[in-house]
């Protein structure tokens, strides 16, 4: 429910880390029309013949749109054309389950499937939540970041109660942490009070290297392997691997 908190940055660095350090088979599904997760892994998102919107419209199978990237992560990419389909897709019967049904055919080929969501609760995010076992909630260290939690928790109640899908909070993740800034520390404390042991221990720092890496089509593990961003995302990878 908030933009720019590090959803895409987390999705693609986590995906690369699961491949690189644990040899897992990982798919990222980009259900955000900004196409950031795919673009950050070097996919030319403007030149796609087929993309996720074709799958949601049932014009293509998920396996037909998957792109292999140099990082070893497979991606089901999107671009802005997905946004144009939001209203038509919202009118389809069974609209909340389009992604879950599409995933069923490829699920056995992967150890982890990560879905990168847009910053709002619309038909695409609902599809992502209905297809997922757990949700990672990145929260940036701002007051508005804390407010965004209310939005996602409301959506999770809707998913559990009205749509009867038992989704779990896999964890809340403190992102864009700046230790020199009192607000960062205050927000982190509020998050701990709210989420308790459902907080990831990894804390993602604000660092320019994390911002620069996508413009090189690289993960933080290649772009700045020894820096604080890589260290923090490595910790997250090692926490997430324990779910398997
Ligand atoms: N820890 C960080 N340190 C510095 N820059 C960061 C960090 N995390 C993300 N960024 C940068 O902030 C911007 C927003 O991050 P990102 O795209 O991951 O957020 P998002 O939640 O996916 O945004 P959106 O809601 O628009 O999809 C990007 O330019 C990204 O490179
Ligand atoms: Mg994003």
UniProtKB/TrEMBL annotation:
InterPro entries per UniProt: AAA_dom, DNA_Partitioning_ATPase, P-loop_NTPase
Segments forming domain AAA: 2-169
Signal peptide start and end residues: none
Pfam families with a match to the protein in the record: AAA_31
Superkingdom field: Bacteria
Protein name: ParA family protein
């Amino acid at each position: 429910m908030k933009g720019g908190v590090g959803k895409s940055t987390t999705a693609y660095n986590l995906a690369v880390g699961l491949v690189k350090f644990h040899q897992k088979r990982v798919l990222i599904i980009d259900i955000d029309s900004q196409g950031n997760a795919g673009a950050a892994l070097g996919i030319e998102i403007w030149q796609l013949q087929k993309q996720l919107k074709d799958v949601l419209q049932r014009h293509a199978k998920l396996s037909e749109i998957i792109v292999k990237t140099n990082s070893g992560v497979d991606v089901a990419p999107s671009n802005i054309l997905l946004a144009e389909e939001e209203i038509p897709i919202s009118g389809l019967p069974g609209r909340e389950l389009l992604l879950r049904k599409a995933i069923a055919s490829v699920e056995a080929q992967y150890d982890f499937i990560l879905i990168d969501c847009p910053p709002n609760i619309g038909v695409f995010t609902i599809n992502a939540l209905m297809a997922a076992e757990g949700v990672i909630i990145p929260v940036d260290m701002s007051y508005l970041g804390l407010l965004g939690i209310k939005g996602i928790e409301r959506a999770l109640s809707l998913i559990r109660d009205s749509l009867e899908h038992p989704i779990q909070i896999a964890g809340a993740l403190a992102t864009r942490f700046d230790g020199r800034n009192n607000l960062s520390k205050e927000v982190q404390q509020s998050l701990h009070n709210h989420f308790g042991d459902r907080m990831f221990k990894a804390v993602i720092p604000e660092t320019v290297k994390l911002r620069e890496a996508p413009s090189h089509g690289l993960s933080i593990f290649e772009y700045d392997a020894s820096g604080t961003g890589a260290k923090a995302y490595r910790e997250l990878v090692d926490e997430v691997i324990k779910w398997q």
